[in-house]
Amino acid sequence: MNTETHAPALEFWFEFGSNYSYLSVMRIEAAAARQGVRVLWKPFLLGPIFRALGMDNSPFVLQKEKGAYMWQDMVRECRKYGLPWQRPSVFPRLGVLPLRVALAGEGEPWVGAFCQAVMQLNFVHDQDINSEAALAPLLEGLGLPAAEILAAAGSDAVKARLRAHTDEARARGVFGAPTFFMGEEMFWGNDRLDDALAFAAPTRP
Amino acid sequence: MNTETHAPALEFWFEFGSNYSYLSVMRIEAAAARQGVRVLWKPFLLGPIFRALGMDNSPFVLQKEKGAYMWQDMVRECRKYGLPWQRPSVFPRLGVLPLRVALAGEGEPWVGAFCQAVMQLNFVHDQDINSEAALAPLLEGLGLPAAEILAAAGSDAVKARLRAHTDEARARGVFGAPTFFMGEEMFWGNDRLDDALAFAAPTRP
User: Fold this and answer.
1) CA A73 to CA A123: how far, in whole Å?
2) Interface pTM (ipTM) of the complex?
3) Coil, strand or helix: which one is B61?
4) Does CATH number 3.40.30.10 belong to domain B9-200?
5) Which of A118, A144, B110, B153 fits as disulfide partner to B101, beta carbons 3.0 to 4.6 Å?
6) Which of B55, B64, B69 should be substituted to probe chain A, the one whose Cβ sees the most A Cβ atoms within 10 Å?
7) Do A16 and A93 contact (CB within 8 A), yes or no?
8) How would you class B122 by CB atoms within 10 Å of its CB: exposed for 0-12, middle for 13-18, buried for 19 or more?
């Protein structure tokens, strides 16, 4: 496993409300490790992106046909990747608080495990993810100081960083999640995760 | 190669103006033959589908960011599949006449080769595909009676069949191309071609 800081780094832009982000959050750490690529976790808010594109909700809500298809596709995709799945009763779930927690933990080794736990809460256990009551047990389950991390997540600095991430995503042409960047090369969708990692991977002998 | 009529059949709904349909048109016959699956070519018009969904053009034209990404993605996808590629100077190109030709040849062994030739005209040679002058040489190149086939393509019966195909696509929840059906199971996008074929394939010992 080659994850030292000089390894090439793939930016992973994701949202906790996004079902296709769920697939990538669950897959990316193992897949990246196999390729010798580091993951830079880039939480951002999809809502402002969609609004800037003229949509007041997820395209899966606004376009009935596309939404109906997506739920069928998710069942098959989860089966393909061996991931548990339950269609959430609320979609898309608000996830601004866990996005801030992920930002508060930027660069920490627990970020991936935390993001996986949040995604499972949403897409496996069909539970609210946007409260301290929901997130504290996840952090504690990872052996982390929940109160301290949640306080950091609520700071003005972290709130501003999440807004800045979202503005950066918009400026770089992101229109959905997950989105991957290696330098200026952009890859959209869980379907492109393997291609993005292959692009980012160091040349092998 | 198992393509006798009792082999399982995958419906392949496609449009000549659709760039992701280009990838599937070029790939599907060889991939289906490897899986022992027949291909049912289902030409339809995307324009009326998009209009029914409230869009007066391709989403790649209406959504600037998504369009910019798609052109970047196509370069990489064609490289991945070993397909030639030139970004068309007109997009999306009208392709109602070649769709009618493909319908006029329904069930004929030349349909796949004809569709590949039309797609190459659009996405490799950047040429008009919607005139008899453009299509006659393609048909002749396949050793076919061009005048006779073009006359059949212009018949009221074929025109009505193309409208009926488009209505059927809409009724079955199609919102883009390519789309694959095995029975009621729907797969959207060239990214799902392999999954659709695996789903359609007969169980192997």
Assistant:
1) 14
2) 0.93
3) helix
4) yes
5) B153
6) B69
7) yes
8) buried
- Mean pLDDT value of segment B179-185: 96
Contacts of B75 in chain A (CB under 8 A): none
**Chain B touched by A69 (CB under 8 Å):** yes
Q: Which of A69, A80, A176 sits opposite B188 (nearest CB)?
A: A69
pLDDT computed for residue B204 by the predictor = 52
Task: State the smallest CA–CA distance between residue B139 and chain A in angstroms.
Answer: 36
Are A88 and A126 within 8 A, CB to CB? yes
Please state, in angstroms and rounded to a whole number, the distance separating the CA atoms of residues B49 and B43: 13
The answer to whether residues A31 and A86 touch, using CB atoms and an 8 Å cutoff, is no
- CB proximity B191 to A under 8 Å: yes
Task: Name the nearest CA neighbour of A129 among A140, A142, A141, A116.
Answer: A116
Residues of A forming the active site = 18
Encoded tokens for A61: 């809500």
- Domain residue ranges in chain A: 9-200
Chain B residues whose beta carbon lies within 8 Å of the beta carbon of residue A69:
173, 175, 186, 188
Residue with tokens 């869009």: B55
Mean pLDDT of chain A, nearest integer: 95
Q: Tell me the C-alpha distance between A112 and A26, whole Å.
A: 9
Q: What is the pLDDT of residues A54-97, one digit of tens each?
A: 999 999 999 999 999 999 999 999 999 999 999 999 999 999 99
CA atoms within 13 A on the CB side of B167: 6
Q: State yes or no: pLDDT of B183 exceeds 70.
A: yes
In angstroms, the separation between the Cα of residue A42 and the nearest Cα of chain B is 19
Does the pLDDT value for residue A203 go beyond 90?
no
Note whether A59 contacts B: Cβ–Cβ < 8 A. Answer: no
Catalytic residues of B: 18
**Chain A residues within 8 A of B61 when measuring between CB atoms:** none
Number of H helices, E strands in chain A: 10, 4
